[in-house]
C-alpha cells in the first residue's frame, strides 16, 4: 500500500470530509444527504466543537476520517473525548488506515490532557470491534448505553 499520512483537518478539507461523512452515515442506514453532511461537518469544524483527523495517500486523496468530541467525565472529574465517528473507504479497509486514524486521535488526546477516549460501535460491526480490541481498547462489560429522542 502507498504511504498513508494522518493529520488534523482544516477548513479547506470540509467538502472532502463531507463526502466521507455522508458515506459513513449511509453505513449506519441513513439516507444519503450531502448538503446535511456538509453543513454538519462545516459547523463542527468552524465552531471548534470537534477534532477531525483525516488519512490520505500520497496523492492527497482522503481515505478515511475520525472525529473526536471533547467532553467531561464527572466520575473522574476530568476531560475525556468521545470518538464518535471512524470511517474508512471500502477500498482502503484492511490497509492500516483505521489504525493510523486511531493512533492520531490517541496522540492528540494525550497531548491535550484528555484522560480517556470512549467510543461505541454497532454490536454487528465485527471488523471495527476486532480493530479496537487489537489496539487495546477495552469493551465495557459493566455499563449499558441508553438513548431517547426527546
Could you give a quick summary of the protein structure above?
The protein is an alpha+beta fold and 150 residues long. It has helices at 14-27, 34-46, 97-111, 126-134, and strands at 5-8, 51-56, 62-73, 78-88, 117-118.
Helix vs. strand class: alpha+beta
Strand portion? 15-25%
Rg for CA atoms: 15 Å
* Overall mean pLDDT: 95
Q: How is the biggest beta sheet arranged?
A: 5 strands, mixed
Strand order of the largest sheet: 1-2-3-4-5
Number of strands: 5
Q: Give, in order, the helices and strands.
A: EHHEEEHEH
Number of helices: 4
Assembly state of the chains shown:
single chain
User: Low-confidence parts lasting 5 or more residues at pLDDT below 50?
Assistant: none
Sum up the overall morphology in one term. globular
What gap, in angstroms, lies between the N and C termini? 46 Å
Helix content: 25-40%
Would you write up a description of this structure?
The chain is an alpha+beta fold and 150 residues long. The chain contains 4 helices and 5 strands. It has helices at residues 14-27, 34-46, 97-111, 126-134, and strands spanning 5-8, 51-56, 62-73, 78-88, 117-118. A 5-stranded mixed beta sheet has the order 1-2-3-4-5. A hairpin with a 4-residue loop joins strand 3 (62-73) and strand 4.
Looking at this protein, list some descriptive labels:
alpha+beta, 4 helices, 150 residues, 5-stranded mixed β-sheet, 34% helix
Helix and strand arrangement:
Elements: E1 5-8, H1 14-27, H2 34-46, E2 51-56, E3 62-73, E4 78-88, H3 97-111, E5 117-118, H4 126-134
Parallel strand pairs: 4-5
Antiparallel strand pairs: 1-2, 2-3, 3-4
Helix pairs in contact: 1-2
